[in-house]
Design brief:
single chain; about 350 residues; TIM Barrel; binds flavin mononucleotide; oxidoreductase; flavoprotein; Aldolase_TIM; NMO
Amino acid sequence: MSSYPKTDRLMQRGADFLGSETAILCGAMSWVSERNLVSAISNAGGFGVIACGAMTPELLETEIAETQKLTDKPFGVNLITMHPQLFDLIEVCDKAGVSHVVLAGGIPPKGSVEAIKGGANPAKVICFAPTLALAKKLLRSGADALVIEGMEAGGHIGPVSTSVLAQEMLPELAEDHIIFVAGGIGRGQAIAGYLEMGAAGVQLGTRFACASESIAHPDFKKAFFRANARDAVASVQVDARLPVIPVRALKNKGTEEFTAKQREVAGTLDREEIAMEEAQLQIEHYWAGALRRAVIDGDVENGSLMAGQSVGMLKAEEPVADIIQKLMAQSEEALSRR
Ligand SMILES: Cc1cc2nc3c(=O)[nH]c(=O)nc-3n(C[C@H](O)[C@H](O)[C@H](O)COP(=O)(O)O)c2cc1C
């Protein structure tokens, strides 16, 4: 890779932590972040992360082994905290010698961080921090690094924008901790800005979802190339009794179907047929199925086209290495102009 001295310097801590050439992570994307994309990202100098999603421990074991065949560079595994077999999945990562585990989807359950760090092959733990108070708590409880992700991002989102989270958290945390910024990043100029504010690196999802190495269906990719920022909308909660985490996706028929699904699940909750935890799990299974329909089957009408607002900047398929080079060059150019 060419040299980008100013960007490299600001990314040094993040890259050392990840064991990669650049501190650019490709955030885990269910169905998309599998062996091909993850190994391509790590081979190109970034940091790939397998999306475990709803995989069984056996499937995750295979995915890790297949990824290891395609790259000898480090990569991470993203585990969803509400997965019923979370601790078995942690054991799979430990046995396979995975260097970094990302815990997503809520506050890590008791003992999970300890299990990741205390196995035969201790891994580093990366968590998502939605607020400053929680960020401090997670760092006290053993998280080695944090991702702060704004509501511009694709997939499950919080309520606050990336620019506000970065201003709130980086001045307090970035000097002593490794903080990665995610959500809405489409160009290197934005990366330069967050690095200057103290971020150790950045995480992108949408920008990489349509890379040449991504196995996403050609129709899924076409929908991304056609979309504008305003087409990537957050899902709406229709029933106050059923708290669902909003999901940002391109609007289509599937967006309406989700409203119906929420009503159906809220009904079963009302009739006390299921508990709240089960209701939330059903919602998550719904998303996993809908995303699979779009990413794998190419059903862009009824499936879920999870995408962030940066989708409007995507115009064509590009190899991962070109995307990373471009982001680094844009960041370097911005820093050089300062
Ligand atoms: C199609 C898609 C699927 C995603 N799936 C997951 C997931 O399974 N777990 C997770 O932690 N984040 C998931 N994300 C979020 C990404 O990891 C990443 O943090 C986010 O895309 C960054 O924001 P950006 O889309 O604006 O680049 C997903 C994002 C997209 C676009």
